[in-house]
Design a protein that fits this description.
There is one protein chain. This protein starts with a helix and ends with a helix. It has one domain (3-182). The chain has helices at residues 3-44, 77-101, 109-132, 151-169, 171-177, 181-204, 208-212, 218-230; strands at residues 50-54, 58-65, 135-141. Helix 2 (77-101) packs antiparallel against helix 3 (109-132), helix 3 runs antiparallel to helix 4 and helix 4 (151-169) crosses helix 5 (171-177). The protein has 8 helices and 3 strands; from the N terminus they run H-E-E-H-H-E-H-H-H-H-H. The radius of gyration is 34 Å and the shape is elongated. By secondary structure, it is mainly alpha-helical.
């Protein structure tokens, strides 16, 4: 491996480490919050019992959910468990890939937040599924009979909402991250052509006197010839 390749590899490694050091601590805090709330509910409540927070509107209702967020997948529980575990692993791998790809810069801050929320939410529920084969849910809006959910679900939903917002209103961020190769090639070709034209123009406008300096003076040649004949 050449010195240039080693230097490039070293820079890439440092970049990956910097990205992970940015994402992982925040993600770890969010995952900890999710797991802590689940622990507090499961250790202090019996399943299918509730604590009324706002009578008839909102309550803490302890439920072990073997399905996906908001009870999706009730019609095929056994098959669904394998599907959701596989999908979670793939989704986590994709998130890690983009975490390493998105630069830790301010212009990509919104996308960084989205990735962190998706990652923390997915890992939070994934831990439950692996350890308990179910997810602990406890937020329940009784007034509208909304499906019971948890903190990790909130992370995923907020991340999805921000992603939709970014897709429609912050599309320049995606263009910088995933530039159109054809458009980029055309821009590079146009820049190269402009540079060539500028160089040609500079050559055409060169001072004629500079060229003349390199030519022999006929008077000097004649004088040298006369001196030789006299000798």
């Amino acid at each position: 491996m050449s010195e240039k390749q080693k230097e490039s590899s070293s820079k890439q490694t440092k970049y990956y480490i910097k990205s992970l050091l940015y994402y992982l601590p925040i993600s770890a805090i969010l995952i900890f919050v999710d797991q802590l709330t689940k622990y507090l509910v499961s250790s202090n409540m019996e399943e299918h019992t509730s604590i009324v927070v706002w009578d008839g509107v909102f309550e803490i209702y302890f439920l072990r959910n073997p399905f996906a967020s908001f009870n999706f997948g009730q019609s095929f529980p056994q098959v669904f468990y394998g599907i959701v575990i596989t999908f979670s692993i793939i989704f986590i791998a994709v998130l890690i890939y983009f975490m390493l790809r998105v630069p830790p810069a301010k212009e990509f801050r919104l996308l960084q937040v989205i990735l962190i929320l998706f990652f923390a939410g997915t890992i939070g529920n994934f831990i439950d599924r692996v350890l308990y084969h179910s997810v602990i849910d406890f937020f329940y809006f009784k007034a509208i009979n909304f499906p019971v959910f948890n903190v990790a679900d909130i992370f995923v939903v907020v991340g999805a909402a921000l992603f939709i917002f970014a897709f429609f209103f912050k599309n320049k961020m995606f263009e910088k991250l995933f530039p159109d190769k054809k458009k980029k090639g055309e821009e590079e070709a146009a820049a190269a052509a402009a540079k060539t034209e500028e160089a040609d123009s500079a050559g055409d406008n060169a001072d004629p006197a500079d060229s003349a300096d390199g030519k022999a003076d006929p008077t000097d040649d004649a004088t040298d010839k006369a001196d030789k004949e006299e000798n």
